Amino acid sequence: MANNPNIKNGSTPANQLRLEYERQNALFDAQLPIVQRFLEAQARQIAEAYTERAQRVRFKLPDRVIAAKGTQPVSVQQAVREQRAGGFTNKLARRDVHDTLRQRLAELEQSSDQAIVIAASLIRFASATHMVRNMLPSGRIVAYLPTEEDDIPSIPVSDGTEPESAITASTDAIAEEGNAEDGRGSLQVPYVPAARRFYLPQWVAFGDKGELLVNTVKEAEAHIASMQHFLNVLFAARSLAPYMVADDEFEKKRYGMLGQLVNQGRALALHQTSLIIQKIQERAAAQSLNRGLSLRLPYFNDQDLQVETYDFVIIPAGRIMFVPAFVVRSVRDEHAKVAQDTRFNASTRKHLLTDLEMLEKAFFKPE
After folding, report:
1. What is the rounded CA–CA span in Å between residue 84 and residue 80?
2. HSE of 36 in the Cβ direction (CA atoms, 13 Å)?
3. What's the rounded Cα separation, in Å, for the pair 339 and 353?
4. How many C-beta atoms surround the C-beta of residue 310 within 10 A?
5. pLDDT under 50 in the chain at which residues?
């Protein structure tokens, strides 16, 4: 195999992104404090419009920029300071700020005027940095392990600081370990030990054994939505400025939340499956399933990072008496299909197969 000259020279894509991130970070640090505050103010409104996929956004370039630390500020032409991305024609073409802002910044960064180029790159860096560092809460330092054939580590590793006790109820507050301040008690954290192994315990809805830690499934779904939004903001920052993947805070938040979302998303899907099984059993006992049965089996797709459904027919519509064996036979057929379905990656397939096996086990009656 031929040697890759880029790898030999240390210029891999990852290294290039890190160098670009460090260059942009140094460029921002070189600016005057008043210019930095101006950029941060512009970044707030740009980041909000960008993450919400607004149709348009207005922003201003700074009035002066510094090309390198120790050099004198260079003025930005007044005529180009007012900028806008998006508009009515873009709305008709179904293009939002995700497309139009990146296009406008790219155009500015290709200007023959160095001050405009620098100003546009500073706007891009400040906006992406605001998304990563200011729009999202910071969490705990965590470590995850992957399950077999898993693409994403999602099993939290205990650090030994989650106290367990025979007299600790699942709703009890747990005192954070560590030195308390003089004259004050320990910090009370209202999360069970299982939740405290994750990056953001406040969004943990299921325990180690799949037990529901919140009051309703709706609350669990809301937690999943919050985690999805968290990652969407990170991915938005990455789409605006790809070099943000080299930012330590970006990687910490991505790793922490990705593992938590996959873990909790799968737990939600399995919990919903258990509710479906319960509903089928109740309706079967009431003999209200004699006109057919179709299922929308929930599973967590860790490629799209959302709960989706796998639809299949157990009993065709008509006057057919429900028999548990029909469920078993149908599930086994679908199991064979899923095992060979190339649309799923290995970990999503394994999770969906677990869902199907759970359904089969509930209705299998050995002779």
Report:
1. 10
2. 11
3. 8
4. 19
5. 1-2, 7-8, 164-188
CA distance 354 to 360: 10
User: In the structure encoding, which two tokens stand for residue 32, read together?
Assistant: 């005057």
Residues 190, 173 contacting (CB under 8 angstroms): yes
Residues 199/256, Cβ–Cβ less than 8 Å: yes
What pLDDT does residue 278 have?
94
Residue type, 324: P
The owner of tokens 């999943």 is 224
Check residue 89 and give its pLDDT: 63
Angle between helices 248-285 and 114-133 (to 10 degrees): 40
Number of Cβ within a 10 Å radius of residue 6: 12
Which two tokens mark 230? 């968290």
HSE (CB half, 13 Å, CA atoms) of 313? Answer: 6
pLDDT of residue 108: 97
CB 97 within 8 A of CB 85: yes
Tell me the three-class secondary structure of the chain, residue by residue. CCCCHHHHCCCCHHHHHHHHHHHHHHHHHHCCHHHHHHHHHHHHHHHHHHHCCCCEEEEECCCEECCCCCCCCEECCHHHCEEEEECHHHHHCCCCHHHHHHHHHHHHHCCCCHHHHHHHHHHHHHHHHHHHHCCCCCCCCCCEECCCCCCCCCEECCCCCCCCCCCCCCCCCEECCCCCCCCCCCCEECCCCCHHHCCCHHHCCECCCCCECCCCHHHHHHHHHHHHHHHHHHHHHHHHCHHHHHCHHHHHHHHHHHHHHHHHHHHHHHHHHHHHHHHHHHHHHCCCCCCCEEEEEEEEECCCCEEEEEEEEEECCCCCCCCHHHHHHHHHHHHHHHHCCCCCCHHHHHHHHHHHHHHHHHHCCCC
Residue-wise pLDDT for 135-162, tens only, equals: 999 999 999 999 877 889 999 987 665 5
Q: Which of 168, 167, 139 is nearest to 259 (CA)?
A: 139
Q: Where are the domains of the chain?
A: 12-133, 264-363
